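Form 7-S
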Amino acid sequence: MKIIAPRLKLGDGIGVVAPAGPVIDSEIQPGAERLRSLGFEVLLSPHVLEKKDYLAGDDRVRLEDLHDMFRNDRVRAILCARGGYGTLRLLEGIDYEVIRNNPKIIVGYSDITALLMALYKRTGLITFHGPVLRDLGKNRYRNLESLLRLVGSEEKPSFHLTGGEVIRPGKAKGVIVGGNLNLLCHLQGTPFMLSPRGKILFIEEKGEPLYRVDRMLTHLKLSGLLTRCAAVVFGEFVECGDPSSLAQVLRDRTADLGIPVVTGLRAGHGEEHMTLPIGARAYIDTDKMSLSLLEACVR
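Output:
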């Protein structure tokens, strides 16, 4: 059963958690101050600045902060501080009943892909692939404006794929899922991965050489994730080799899928990062080069 969180309003509390890699105070304070200047209350989790090697504290405290933010009545939305690595380690320990009983907007990307997908799979809660607190200043805060528009109203916007390439034309309806290519590969074969049937699969990546992009897409193809979904839309592939060679790899791995495949979604690790609702129904039309929501993602 799908769960839709209440929309975010001025004056609401926004909680901040660090479920993956560590951050320092100077990295997150500019974003926090911006949110406060817009009229939101910002609540940092107690362990948000902890560090244990490459993690933001041990698994226990990161889980504790996540659960506490969902339980906190002052919090209407939860922003992840950054990506990095670590959310996969939390999936087995999450109390999904707590999330189901306290539905809230939760936002992040990159390594946070695993958390967004698992929460939607286990609870039905629509989650949001969008900017983390550390990145709110990118694109002159326009990414933050895009996020606030999406989670602050019941509008059903369209995402334009201007400048993208149609690898295979067509139209399709489905539920948006996906995120970072690396994380999708690591989720595949676990109980936290969604069935691809009836899904519009969104994929983005950063910093992977072409042969690894090829290998990961081939893995998703062999495992059935690419071959059984309703459509594939590629977002930003940042620092993944020569753009023309990358485009050829994307064509080579997806042109024969028999479903609509298109590039050009401004979401991921690039400067421009539109927020996508994971779990919301949408319609993709390669003639119009658009991905349009068919339902509100907050209430």
